[in-house]
Design brief:
The complex is a heterodimer of chains A (247) and B (172). With 247 residues, chain A is mainly α. Chain A has helices spanning 5-27, 35-54, 58-87, 92-122, 128-157, 163-185, 191-217, 231-245. Classes of the chains: A mainly alpha (247), B mainly alpha (172).
Chain lengths: 247, 172
């Protein structure tokens, strides 16, 4: 298995970004607040470094990819849970409702993932690589669904995301969405297009690394206290709502 | 193949949602409390007025008019909901204060603003049903006591923050 010099450069750039992210997480002590994300970032760095060292040995590389991706997906789901926990820490009133809605959504996502597995298996798709692709696709559906749920729920209730939490969710979401689309397209493409799609998925992870680094390193803007509503404005809201109720 | 298209659509929708979230976050930083035109709102919410129109106008014309009214009312409720979100953001920031009184007041404000936001969503859902079926008259959820409490607590939080800000300014 060979690798062109441009592909090597892309892998080395990715590894450099991953090292920078792990260093930023450790130096900013973000591992205290995001232990699962720190584990995820460290694991991905170790996995990609090992993959780069072993890509000339296809058999070992394949097993490593299989185990590595499985662990990365589980950790990715853990990161989604960590974001959920961080987002609702300040919103005790919403947490119970959010947990219920999240459980129902996850159930629906499991059904969709199971349907994907069932229909693709019954369509006569065979081979180890194809089975791997199907399993990863099903897992990514659950992962992206969990992240989408967080964005929809927080948008509906106007929840405020802290900068680093938002960055982690955005980066993970973009990567998983691109990876999912790539996994869905791959079985229907020719060799040349397959390489292109894989390259796009790889670049999307680099983009996610940049997003994570950016949101972790750029200082958060503190809201000004001048945003406090004036009592007269509050009175207007109150009256408006009263009108609405007693119509 | 259809399932594959659904999966690709899910991924694309997710990317679109992330884009909207980034835009909303960008706009949120500049978002402030917006006033509500009470007089216009009162006119819109007048059920007697609605009853009068229902009796006088042909059904189709009434439905068209009712939809217009509900549409504008939805904008008002949306504005109140947006104001509640601004208060939630402000209260979340205030929770980081070193003053325990500020933290406590901020928690109370946050909880009530969350309730208002939730109730506004319910009100919007009901108004949306009225928009779809104009002959219906649904009363939105009761918000009055909560809103009154929120008003008092936000004022209290503002006073507390001012008290803590002044000594810090003098010290500098």
């Amino acid at each position: 298995m060979g690798m062109s010099s441009s592909a090597q450069a892309a892998v080395i750039l990715g590894l450099a970004l991953e090292i920078a992210l792990v260093a930023a997480l450790l130096l900013k002590r973000a591992w205290r607040r995001f232990p699962i994300f720190t584990m995820y970032a460290s694991f991905v760095l170790a996995e990609n470094a090992a993959a780069f060292a072993l890509y000339r040995q296809p058999r070992i590389y394949l097993y490593m990819y299989l185990i590595g991706e499985s662990i990365a997906i589980v950790l990715g789901l853990g990161v989604a849970y960590e974001i959920f926990r961080d987002l609702f820490t300040a919103h005790a009133a919403l947490r119970r409702m959010a947990v219920t809605v999240f459980q129902v959504s996850t159930g629906a996502l499991f059904l969709l993932a199971a349907s994907v597995l069932y229909y693709q298996a019954s369509s006569g798709a065979t081979g180890f690589a194809r089975a791997l692709n199907m399993a990863e696709e099903a897992a990514r559906i659950i992962e992206i669904g969990a992240i989408v749920f967080l964005f929809i729920f927080s948008g509906a209730f106007g929840l405020h995301w802290r900068q680093s939490t938002f960055g982690i969710a955005l980066g993970l979401g973009l990567f998983v969405a691109t990876k999912l689309a790539a996994l869905a397209i791959l079985p229907y493409t020719s060799k040349g297009i397959t390489d292109f799609v894989s390259m796009i998925a790889g670049f999307s992870f680099d983009l996610s690394l940049l997003i994570w680094l950016g949101y972790l390193l750029v200082p958060e803007h503190a809201p000004a206290t001048t945003e406090l509503p004036q009592p007269s404005q509050l009175e207007q809201w109150n009256q408006a709502i009263l009108e609405l109720i007693h119509q | 193949m259809i399932l594959t298209l659904i999966v690709i659509a899910l991924a694309l929708c997710a990317v679109g949602l992330f884009y909207m979230a980034v835009r909303r976050r960008w706009n949120q930083a500049r978002q402030s409390v917006r006033p509500v035109d009470l007089k216009a709102f009162r006119t819109l919410m007048d059920r007697d007025d609605e009853l009068f129109l229902r009796e006088r106008l042909p059904r189709r014309q009434f439905w068209s008019l009712k939809r217009q009214r509900v549409g504008v009312t939805l904008r008002y409720v949306s504005r109140i909901s947006g104001n509640a979100a601004v208060v939630m953001r402000m209260a979340t920031a205030a929770q980081a204060s070193a003053d325990q009184q500020v933290v406590q007041a901020a928690s109370q404000v946050l909880e009530m603003a969350t309730q208002i936001r939730t109730q506004s969503l319910v009100a919007m859902a009901k108004l949306s049903v009225e928009y779809a079926i104009p002959s219906l008259q649904l009363t939105p959820a009761a918000l009055a006591p909560t809103y009154q409490n929120l008003r008092e607590n936000v004022i209290r939080l503002g006073a507390l923050q001012t008290q803590t800000a002044i000594p810090a300014a003098i010290a500098i």
